[in-house]
Amino acid sequence: MDQFHHELPMKVRDYECDLQGIVNNANYQHYLEHARHEFLLSRGISFARLHSEGIDAVVSAITMRFKLPLKSGDEFVVRTRYVHDKFKYIFHQDIYRRSDMRLAVRAQVDTVCVVNGQLSEVDIL
Amino acid sequence: MDQFHHELPMKVRDYECDLQGIVNNANYQHYLEHARHEFLLSRGISFARLHSEGIDAVVSAITMRFKLPLKSGDEFVVRTRYVHDKFKYIFHQDIYRRSDMRLAVRAQVDTVCVVNGQLSEVDIL
Amino acid sequence: MDQFHHELPMKVRDYECDLQGIVNNANYQHYLEHARHEFLLSRGISFARLHSEGIDAVVSAITMRFKLPLKSGDEFVVRTRYVHDKFKYIFHQDIYRRSDMRLAVRAQVDTVCVVNGQLSEVDIL
Amino acid sequence: MDQFHHELPMKVRDYECDLQGIVNNANYQHYLEHARHEFLLSRGISFARLHSEGIDAVVSAITMRFKLPLKSGDEFVVRTRYVHDKFKYIFHQDIYRRSDMRLAVRAQVDTVCVVNGQLSEVDIL
Known about the structure:
Four copies of one chain form a homotetramer. By secondary structure, chain A is an alpha+beta fold. Chain A contains two helices and six strands, in the order βααβββββ.
């Protein structure tokens, strides 16, 4: 990812690893979600407050390619950039292992906004 | 546990195991919570609906003794009984491994009710 | 999904719901993984035993489309079918809400086998 | 906690909150475990490497008192101290909310070491 809007450093926690001794795949979704929410916060937008105001940012689709597994103790960074069309924010998110900056996960996350139950045209970023 | 109010059969899911190849301890808290909520449902009480009505059942303390570890594929049962005093429900919950009915986890979970932010005397069961 | 190899009935657990009151997306990955592992077990194949024998079934890519959110108490079924080519098992998995059998999540999960650290041509199903 | 051996700053991630809008209790066990493992790492001890060497540090009992709930965006610190007797490490761990340094969770975690399946007298710290 050449250009990105946000970068979050993180570290694997042991409870995120499964019996194969590597991070369980579902946790990458957690990492990506946390990175998006931290990105929003850096722009002054709280996911929790949006919800309490009746605006729910919702993931409509996600694609992840797993390139190499992270392990106990690995540090990594999540890089996030986005494009926006009328009804959708498309986030491109890459996870790089810190030790060698090799790509661990490449993801695309499509999100829409639901306002009081209705799909809505919004511009929150 | 000689007498109990509710019994829930469950099975270990592989993603609940950690790099030691056994169920990560935090998941036992999930099992216990799920068993309490299923018990409530069996009495016609929905945890989610309580919340939407402004009543939050909240755990104030938990004690767990881990006797033997559950592993991939293990089936188990959660047995739940409770005692009630003015402000508190005390749940006694045991987890038994199905294959030999040996005790895996013994727990006590104290819960209180918070109504619109205030600790309240309630009688939901 | 017209034809499928395996169907697993499940139910939302409250701890799987997040502050929006709906199942957190990462948990759908857990459901899908659990359904694949139960499918393997139904064919006599244990994911944990494979690992202990040096064979790791690993997800290389996943695509999920989220159609409608599951909520506290919802029952659902996960339907799984697969196709196999030389190096890859491709799983098609759909999650249907039980109450009306509407599609909640449609997923494709590509898995490869790594034997002693090397990508391998295998035929486990 | 007047004196402690280790302090870890952390922050709530939104996916750790449940439908009540507060951190799900099981996640406090995750926080405590992660803090213990980071403490061990600060002493040069890797939980994962211990496991690969046949030494499993295992929690035998845990007691947690929940004083106030953490919410989306809350920062907190986990303070850890321990005492050691022949067969057991007893960890005392407190979680404080950063904004006002009020106590959120007070915990005691008893751990034992299992070496090749046998409870063992060990001295790893």
